[in-house]
Amino acid sequence: MRFPLSIWILMLVFMGCNKSKSPSHEKVTEQKGSENPTVHDNPNKSLYWGDTHLHTTNSPDAFSFGARLTPDEAYRFAKGETIESEGLMIQLNRPLDFLVVADHAEGLGLANEVMARNELLMKDPLLQEWAKRLNAGATESSAVGRELINSFATGDLPEILFDRRVMDKVVSKIWSDYLYTAERHYQPGSFTTLAGYEWSSLPQGNNLHRVVVFRDGYDKTIQTLPLSSSLSSDPKDLWKALQAYEDATNGKVLAIPHNGNASNGLMFTLTDFAGNPMTKAYASLRSRWEPLVETTQIKGDSESHPFLSPNDEFAGYGIAGWDMGNLNLSALKTKDMYQYEYSREALKNGLMIEDRLGVNPYRFGLIGSTDSHTALATADRDNFTGKFTNMVNDAQRSLHSEEIGVANSSEASSIRHNWQYLSSGYAAVWAESNTREAIWDAMQRKEVYGTTGPRIYLRFFGGWEFSSDDVKAPNYAQIGYQKGVPMGSDLLAGDENESPRFMLVASKDPEGANLDRIQIIKGWTQDGKTYEKIFNVAWSGQRKLGTDGKLPLVGNTVDAGSATYKNTIGAEMLATVWTDPEFEPSVRSFYYVRVLEIPTPRWTTYDAARFKLELPADVPSTVQDRAYSSPIWYSPN
Amino acid sequence: MRQIIREPLLHFLLAGFLVFVYYRYWPSNSKDDRTIVIDRKSMLDYVQFQSRAFNEDIFGPGIDQLDEVEKQRLVNQYVRDEVLYREAVRLGLDQHDEIIRRRIIQKMEFILDDMKESELYIDEDSLSVYFDLNRHRYTRDARYTFAHIFFDNDGTDLSAYDRAISFMEEPGHTNLSAAESLKYGDRFLYHRNYADKSRSFIESQFGASFALQLESLMAEAETWQGPVASDHGQHLILLKENKAESIPPFDEIKEVVSSDYIWDVKRRKQKKYILDLIKEYDIRVHW
After folding, report:
1. Of A96, A624, B148, B255, whose CB neighbour count within 10 A is largest?
2. Are A519 and A506 a contacting pair, CB within 8 Å?
3. What is the pTM of this model?
4. Are B200 and B127 within 8 A, CB to CB?
5. Cβ within 8 Å of A, B 112-171
6. Cβ separation A474–B187 shorter than 8 A
7. Could you give the ipTM of this predicted complex?
């Protein structure tokens, strides 16, 4: 649930006690820079796992659903420490390598400040009263929520919330605490914290959210403030602010859009935000600031939709519920919106625009992240902690309706259900070392991929000279860099008569399920139209490709009753060198990889087995988790 | 007279009278059922239950500062809840309902859990005693830095072990640098170099017995050692560093220790409290 600041403030329904933990600190003395002798670089890149999109108590919506865990606890949990949430002592079974706490800029930390009676805010009698009543239990705080809605409707919110002289001070304090915590948890070489926030633009309930990620430390990030979308929901204004930050600090920053699936056709339009035809300048800005798209997360997967890709039998992973309407279901979707919402279609449209304008606005890499609002970065099927804190320790959670949809639904028949949340996803980064600079640079050059949760290992190189023996070599990665380019890169045109070759290696999550297959998804544009084709390029067992290029299903070992599966089917590792059999040197195209796991129990199936639940018939009991690589683009000379 | 005594109407009247007396003059029952007492304490409990947070220092002043309108609203809400609750109990809705039973148990556990946290004072000394007693809980995994040359079990006709041995016997091979070693052996599922990786990480990628054998190799070696067997095949190892399992200094993890300590104390208190409650009951097992 994301709204502009004004709505944010009135949505706050406060509960619970004040747990303010802001450390007193006047200055940060130690700056951690790129020079760190203990961190050694791997020229062939190492794989790092993380979440670029995690909310804590600082996010008003998270707060209102009971989140009291702070960024400090979020970092500790991601590092593998045990923390307490909703009466549970919980620990991530495998720590992450990096984390971006990305709380909403709109109302960042404000709820806690009002409750903690921030002196600046207490000058306003209304806020003073709210503070008083917010500390007087749930009944009073719900009443405050209702009053807020009224004062919003009648247009008399406390003026102080729009007074920059006051709010800059309040927000500065919150922002400084926020950055300081990230600084404290940064351990170059073993755990990276990247400063970030979420710009939560939501025109008419249509999701245009971006997560902003900084490369820099406190010395630079303290010179800016998180941009709120309350004044403008136009991404161009965000890019302007990012440019201003870079100009002022010499720092570096990027933005990652997410949930195109809830944008009602606005995320990847052929126009600018105002609806004017896209210009070269606009396209350049978009590709300059937004090198990645978070394509899979808790609120559904936005890789592909069966309506757009009818020949892809694996399209539409985790779209149920999310392809019905916009973020808060205030408007339902029409089918013509899908083409501007899903990543694959955007990658294709990007080529088409590039043909016309010379610039591809949608030249982005793919990652996954959680968007969890619990401060807990969990993405696996068997450790799902839910979207909001009220789902962390609730055996019945999968049976409830999804609260935001119900609250705002424009039609009673279209509601979302909690079971439609996905236990997804993570971002995988190929970087020289586990440092801010190396990880951010890998994001910027798109040498990253996303998974729907499992830590599937994936290498993907494109080139003209790979031999089929190269992928069998022990140092295939080294050869990959020598003879080709890694995921996220441009493949420059080769000899006239050559077809591009791709070297792929995928290994199962060391603690997870075997692999079913590797696919290459090719998209191209010709004569102002776009096309796609799925190639099965490596698979387990003795299956034979059909004449239509389709591969028989891998099978299914899931026992839903006990929520278990067996690795008796599938392969631990799949690898191949694949040559495009239909290559056309004059055609602009891209290639990305999709790796499928064998079927495993869905998170709801684990819940059903653990808590003896009867799930509705339309809840699938198994999933095929997957990895999506960033594309390699081919451009004709 | 006898006839009168046998008269059902009399029985009925008598029974009715008794019922009347019972309900009219049995004070402890009737009054409690139909009286709702509202005082500061009941309201304080109420808002705390509603918030699922128990801290009188915050909620006490909070409810004292409410104005008359706010107080009335709180009272109305409480009265409504209480009346509905009592009516439900009168209808027997709480009986034999497993969900309600579970819920009430949970609630009780929650209250016990939150008991008197504010009164918990932890002094440095008892914390460090606690740390000493529980050192094993803060043990940091061993960490390794190494390069490996992998020989796949299903590589060729020759066994992986034999291939590893004969590779080592070739001149110059025992002293290869990590970078030079990259082009030898077979393709491995995961990485060629592992820098400062924990034992559990190694175990997940190579299997438990490999991690165990790694322990016995000589660290900071300039020469390759092995072969060492894993779940996947045989490995020659250049072990650059072996950081033994360690317990970090107290100061570094004080915060974690202290939250564990609070958790433990709460658990212990809760357990004791429940045991005390159980003592009040006469437990008869017929099973």
Report:
1. B148
2. no
3. 0.81
4. no
5. 113, 149-150
6. yes
7. 0.80
- Could you tell me how many residues make up chain A? 637
Q: How many helices (H) and strands (E) does chain A have?
A: 15, 24
| 3 state SS for A100-156 | EECCECCCCCHHHHHHCCCCCHHHCHHHHHHHHHHCCCHHHHHHHHHHHHHHHHCCC
**How many Å apart are CA A296 and CA A293, to the nearest integer?**
9
Q: Is A361 within 8 Å of A283 (Cβ atoms)?
A: yes
Cβ(B189)–Cβ(B232) under 8 Å?
A: yes
CB contact A243 to B (< 8 Å): no
User: What sign for the dihedral angle of Cα A208, A213, A214, A217?
Assistant: positive
Phi/psi of residue B145, each to 5°?
Answer: -125, 120
Identify from A84, A88, A139 which residue to disrupt to test chain B contact, counting B C-beta atoms within 10 A and taking the largest count.
Answer: A139
Choose the mutation target among B42, B48, B52 for the interface with A, i.e. most A CBs under 10 Å: B52
* Cα distance between residue A412 and residue A406, in whole Å: 8
Task: Give the span between the Cα atoms of A426 and A406, in whole angstroms.
Answer: 28
For tokens 């808060």, what's the residue? A328
Each of the 287 residues of chain B gets a pLDDT tens digit; together they read: 566 666 666 666 666 666 665 555 554 444 566 787 888 888 888 887 776 566 777 778 888 888 888 888 888 878 877 787 888 887 777 777 777 777 777 667 766 665 555 456 778 888 889 999 988 888 888 999 999 999 998 756 679 999 999 999 999 898 898 888 999 999 999 999 998 889 989 999 999 999 999 988 988 878 999 899 998 999 999 999 999 888 888 888 888 888 888 878 877 877 787 778 778 777 777 67
Say if the Cβ atoms of A139 and B73 lie within 8 Å.
yes
Considering only CA atoms, which of A490, A491, A488, A480 is closest in space to residue A446? A488
Give contacts of B263 with chain A, Cβ < 8 Å.
Answer: 84, 89
